[in-house]
Amino acid sequence: MEKTKKIVLLIIIIMGFVALLFPSNALAQRSGIQRTDLQRHDLSVSGHEAIQVRVDFEPGAAFGMHSHPGEEIIYVLEGTFVYEIEGELPVTLNAGDVLFIPAGKNHSAKNVGKMKASELATYIVEKGRPLLVMKK
């Protein structure tokens, strides 16, 4: 019985680490959003890294309020998004538009078009912290 408890505890710990490392992918896959990690590199600024991700939204798909432990720069590849940044008016972005989201600022995104919408998200973040924190 003791061995079974240890195995269950180990599985729970591993699942917790996976959830910390990949929180947005788990949520995104269920909501019509597909994330594709493109690159991740250490920066010359100690303790920071740059991460680039392509994010594809099916029509009507939305990602709720969340924040990142650093800045996010959005470049819209195709489609039409509405972004809401806490404390600001919503902004509509189309292919070729860009958006800067300050570190720690809660924001959300929704594909408001009739076709797939895609963005290139570049994060300049502190290493070792979860990339995504959902607003409670």
Q: In percent, how much strand structure appears in the residues? A: over 45%
Fraction of residues in helix: 10-25%
Biggest β-sheet strands, sense, barrel? 5 strands, antiparallel
- Structural class label: alpha+beta
Poorly predicted tracts of residues: 16-22, 24-28
Write down the overall geometry. globular
Order of helices and strands: HHEEEEEEEEEE
Number of helices: 2
Main β-sheet, spatial strand arrangement: 1-2-9-4-7
Query: Mean of residue pLDDT?
Result: 86
Number of strands: 10
The separation of the N and C termini measures: 37 Å
Q: What's the alpha carbon Rg, rounded to whole Å?
A: 17 Å
Summarize the structure.
With 136 residues, the chain is of the alpha+beta class.
Can you put this structure into words, describing what you see?
This protein is of the alpha+beta class. It is built from two helices and ten strands, in the order H-H-E-E-E-E-E-E-E-E-E-E. The chain has helices at residues 2-21, 23-30, and strands spanning 33-42, 48-57, 62-67, 70-78, 80-85, 91-94, 98-101, 107-111, 117-126, 133-134. The strands form two sheets. It has a five-stranded antiparallel sheet with strand order 1-2-9-4-7, covered by helices on one side. The protein has a five-stranded antiparallel sheet with strand order 6-5-8-3-10, with no helix packed on it. The chain is globular and about 55 Å long. Mean pLDDT is 86; it is low at 16-22 and 24-28.
